[in-house]
Design goal:
InterPro entries: KDZ
Largest sheet: 6 strands, mixed
Organism: Suillus fuscotomentosus
Number of strands: 10
Number of helices: 16
Strand content: 5-15%
Shape: elongated
Pfam families: KDZ
Protein name: CxC1-like cysteine cluster associated with KDZ transposases domain-containing protein
Structural class: alpha/beta
Distance between the termini: 65 Å
Order of helices and strands: EEHEEHHHHHEEHHEEHEHHEHHHHH
Radius of gyration: 25 Å
Length: about 400
């Protein structure tokens, strides 16, 4: 291949943590595109065909790790830092340039990881779910049978919203890229369960966890007021706030060692029943029998689960709902005796609030995801989840349950 097939990079701006300069780079015989020459020298261009600015790989790698360790450290903060380091004025367009190069860097890392997984035979279906937490899912030969083969918790969080740009009449920027990680359950799969909760109670006009009406005068002891005392789905008037957000949060499942197993987006709503139904159906498919799940309103949700399309399968597999220990004390005594993990054999000291530990860290992402595109929001959350699981894996041998 003639080197004339690849245009030379004359006077291109090269950005690194330690220097900012202009240079001319000549392609070698095998290079056909400018970015091949740039990456050969350790840079990624901010444009595909005719880049005028390129950012070094080590700068992008440093930002990736900084953003993982401190989610509030955004691309804008990184660009401002580079500008101050090199004594140049900050311009907002630098964010777009850095973001374009960072997207390509993560895409390269993703393809390298995919090839590595294929070589190690880690690309089989549900491999991550089956091997993410050795303490939960790795079974020894002749290991004694436990009351629960697996324990998880599920919960939703509204911090990671994404603003709907059409609210102010703006045209949303279309991005055809999709989330790459297998953490996510896609929206189409979740929506398969959207009518199942309503079918459980014909008197309910919205998915708001209402219990069936009970005549208190007939038998006052049968009145369960726990849903009225503690409800994480507000009245319809309070739900109007969700209309200004396209994604109003995330709903996740985590094991008792706080590894993140699954996640899905909550779309213009609070915690509807379709979100835990979609996650639990997947968990039952992968992990099988004798599972347990803690949820803030597990007592009310158990009725929804039993009436769902896979309710009989969950029963046959011995699946058990429970209420997290913190929220459990907001429920009445009768409810606690049946659903509180303290009174359920096999739970040990499991408190069922692992999702809150995850959210305490992921809340830091809110600033950088609120006005991001759908793809970049997922990208940021995926990076955080991946780092979170790696960090938990590294400290797993130090984990001693209380």
């Amino acid at each position: 291949i003639d080197t004339t097939d690849c245009p030379s990079l004359n006077n291109i701006e090269l950005i690194d943590i330690f220097r900012w300069c202009r240079s001319s780079l000549q392609p070698i015989a095998s290079h056909r595109f400018p970015n091949e020459t740039l990456i050969y020298h350790g840079y990624i261009g901010c444009a595909p065909m005719y880049p005028t600015i390129a950012i070094s790989l080590r700068t992008l790698a440093a930002f990736q790790q900084c953003h993982r360790a401190c989610p509030r450290f955004s691309i804008q903060a990184q660009c401002r830092t580079l500008c101050f380091l090199h004594d140049i004025p900050y311009r907002p367009y630098l964010n777009t340039q850095f973001s374009a190069a960072y997207d390509i860097y993560l895409e390269i890392i993703h393809h390298v990881d995919q090839r590595l997984k294929a070589a190690l035979k880690h690309d089989t279906p549900n491999w991550r779910l089956l091997n993410s937490c050795p303490a939960c899912f790795y079974k020894l030969q002749d290991e004694p049978t436990l009351d629960f083969n697996w324990l998880v918790c599920v919960d939703g969080n509204n911090s990671l919203k994404r603003w709907d740009s059409s609210i102010y009449g703006n045209t949303a920027w279309l991005d055809s890229r999709r989330a790459r990680s297998d953490y996510w359950i896609d929206r189409e799969t979740v929506d398969k369960y959207k009518h199942e909760a309503k079918s459980c109670d014909i008197n309910s006009h919205d998915d708001n966890w209402e219990e069936e009406p009970v005549d208190a005068s007939t038998n006052p002891s049968n009145v369960l007021t726990c849903v009225d005392r503690w409800r994480n789905a507000g009245p319809e008037t309070r739900k109007k706030m969700f209309s200004v957000f396209h994604e109003s949060g995330i709903f996740i499942a985590a094991c008792r060692h706080r590894f993140i197993l699954l996640a899905c987006d909550m779309v213009q709503s609070g915690e509807l029943a379709k979100y835990p139904l979609a996650l639990i159906d997947k968990l039952l498919t992968v992990y099988g029998k004798n599972g347990g799940c803690a949820y803030d309103i597990g007592c009310a949700f158990s009725k929804t689960l039993s009436n769902s399309s896979f309710g009989s399968r969950a029963h046959d597999l011995g699946f058990r709902m429970m209420v997290g220990s913190f929220h459990g004390h907001a429920h009445n005594r009768k409810c606690q005796l049946r659903w509180h993990p303290m009174y359920i054999p096999g739970t040990g000291h499991t408190e069922g609030k692992g999702c809150e530990h995850v959210f305490s860290a992921s809340n830091e992402l809110a600033r950088s995801t609120r006005h991001a595109s759908s793809f970049h929001r997922h990208q940021s959350i995926e990076e955080h989840f991946s780092f979170w699981d790696q960090d938990k894996y590294a400290s797993l041998s130090l984990y001693i349950p209380l």
